[in-house]
Amino acid sequence: MAETAAAQKNAQITRTAHSQGEEPASARPLVELDHVEKWYGELHVLRDINLKVSKGEVVVVLGPSGSGKSTMCRTINRLERIDSGVILIDGHPLPQEGRELTRLRQKVGMVFQSYNLFAHRTILDNVTLAPRKVLHRPKAEAEKEARELLSRVGVEAQAAKYPAQLSGGQQQRVAIARALAMHPDVLLFDEPTSALDPEMVGEVLNVMTDLAREGMTMICVTHEMGFARQVADRIVFMADGQILETGTPEQFFEHPQTDRAKDFLSKILNH
Amino acid sequence: MDFVGLLTHYDVVGAFWVNIQLTLWSALFSTILGVILVLMRISPVGSLRGFATGFVRFFQNMPLTILMVFLLLGAFVQLRLQFSSDFTTNFYWLAITGLSLYTSTYVCESLRSGINTVPIGQAEAARSLGFGFFQSAFLIILPQALRGAIAPLGNTLIALMKNTTVAAAAAVASETSSLMNTMIEANADQILTIFLIFAIGWVILIIPVGLLTTYLSNHLAVRR
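YS: structure for the whole thing
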């Protein structure tokens, strides 16, 4: 209850600030969801979502399946439309369609559960394609940076191969390198380890942990509780399309406020 | 007239060459039109999708002979639409127009079946990296769709090759089925030989296309 009231108060403050003109860039959140609502037909999948993510912050979104956490993540680069509310990226509202949206998506990187590497292109091409075609960078320059990124995530030896020749963990690390090649302001992770064999989860989480340490702004939907506890600055707990709790990992894991969160934690932590 | 006489007196090879030319031009134009149609069918703009769907339904469900006769008698004779004042050239391009309109709908639908083999995640990844509609289509979706559509596209090409004989309905007199009729008119005692010349000629022409299609669809398949 107190959480909701606080969120509403925050939203009000934000609206007031907006009506008074532009905030200084350092003060405004990098990603802001303000009273976001979404329905799938009759199903109310996002209910009054209010969330602010500051630059450099790592937010981990937890919650049971079907709680709307993936949907929320996908609304931030408009892979899903919203029915009402506002999503702001660096203070600018997410555009509807067309060139404006394309430009904004360049700033919001995304890593998917099923990697989604371009199956007909080599690993190197996967990483260089967007910098070359979207940012119009010279091929040699894009390839140089791509190789650096690939070695950062530990798959430089696979550069000439095709995605299907790599393991799931390797593919996901390439997908992270591909997103980083666009120099995004924020990275969205939509259950990046859920499709992986257990022994490959660690290598992907290590890359994500390194990124977080380097100051990347990240919004991660995941079921990896160890990662959430150690790396997150803030946990957002969702159920039934609502944000029920937000807090530090310690607050959330040690002193969950709502019954839903207590129930959720008891199911996943007692094994 | 004997077998050798038939082949030397009539330009059989030339007639096949006319069909091959009709095939190449029609394949070119129907590919361009088919790609435009499939882009419209997958575009986010409802009116474009509607137009392309209507276009495909109309030309795909119309018998080619009817379309050819319309172009000859309707578009040319009645409406005075013509490519050239030279009759032969005019009929030739009218036939290519008809073949291209008709075949483009099959190219469109073959590509669309190919697009259905590309997982939705490929388009989402492209969009999330900042690719626009055309960049997503030409860099990511269509290259993969094409590899998944080689078998139906090959069948469409084979159908197009055989359909070029319908150009006779648009008064293209130099192609194979017209020449076969001419030869039979003058050599009624040789019907079987004449028939076999053309039948075997067509089979020899088309079998390699089928083999190539099968080879390509096996070797270019996208591994996932």
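YS: worth flagging: DSSP finds ten helices and no strands in chain B.
IM: good catch. Also The two ends of chain B are 60 Å apart (CA to CA).
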